[in-house]
């Protein structure tokens, strides 16, 4: 039984490069992001992994990352499910703002709280806990059953939607998960036990 779950944060986006809050806005990948996505696919292929099903968000940077990754895998026809439950955290009024401009407007301490606290949302947006409230049920009802059936599943999504998943998988606290950085385009491989707990974790960095 494989019971393998692979999480991949999308490659670098145009707004990552410009230091903008992105959230539910929909910029494309940079050339670096395209290369990161392809490299992720190559490393997964070299590790001998092929997928039974894929999940991603409704945002193009995650979808394109998945598409490039699967191209490298030779699995361009893989069944792929897209759902807003896997979207990035909604940054609300911060979306589209340069992070330095946001600090000038609201103060460095306040922006740091919005970015790095677990349960304080920015104006009009979501906290990480809010993001988890939509990610966790989706994982339990839609993704986890495939994994527990012995399938190998890939999820291409975003820094915060994947943080919510990592938090649940690894049993982390709110403080622990906000300190966890997830690199763009780096696959994290979890092999699960039959009771859904993590048996083994591997990070496929360059």
Short description:
This protein is an alpha/beta fold.
Number of structurally distinct domains:
1
**N-end to C-end Cα span:** 27 Å
Radius of gyration: 16 Å
Structural class: alpha/beta
Number of helices: 8
Give the SSE string: EHHEHEHHHEHHEE
Kindly report the name of the CATH homologous superfamily: Phosphoglycerate mutase-like
> Which segments are poorly predicted (pLDDT under 50) over 5 or more consecutive residues?
none
Helix content: 40-55%
By oligomeric state, this entry counts as: single chain
CATH top level is Alpha Beta
Strand fraction band? Answer: 5-15%
Q: What characteristic shape results from the CA principal axes?
A: globular
Keywords: Isomerase
Protein name: 2,3-bisphosphoglycerate-dependent phosphoglycerate mutase
EC number: 5.4.2.11
Organism: Antarcticirhabdus aurantiaca
């Amino acid at each position: 039984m494989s019971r393998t779950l692979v999480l991949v944060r999308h490659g670098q986006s145009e707004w990552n490069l410009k230091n903008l809050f992105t959230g539910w806005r929909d910029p494309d990948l940079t050339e670096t992001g395209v290369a990161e996505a392809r490299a992720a696919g190559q490393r997964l292929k070299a590790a001998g992994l092929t997928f039974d099903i894929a999940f991603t968000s409704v945002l193009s940077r995650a979808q394109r990352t998945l598409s490039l990754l699967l191209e490298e895998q030779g699995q361009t026809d893989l069944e792929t499910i897209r759902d807003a439950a896997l979207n990035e955290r909604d940054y609300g009024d911060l979306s589209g703002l340069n992070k330095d401009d946001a600090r000038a407007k609201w103060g460095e301490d306040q922006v740091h709280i919005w970015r790095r606290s677990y349960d304080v949302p920015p104006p009009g947006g979501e906290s990480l806990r809010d993001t988890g409230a939509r990610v966790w049920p989706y994982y339990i009802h839609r993704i986890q059953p495939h994994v527990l059936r012995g399938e190998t599943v890939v999820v291409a999504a975003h820094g915060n939607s994947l943080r919510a998943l990592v938090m649940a998988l690894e049993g982390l606290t709110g403080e622990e998960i906000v300190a966890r950085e997830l690199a763009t385009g780096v696959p994290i491989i979890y092999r699960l036990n039959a009771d859904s707990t993590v048996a083994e974790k591997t990070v496929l960095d360059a």
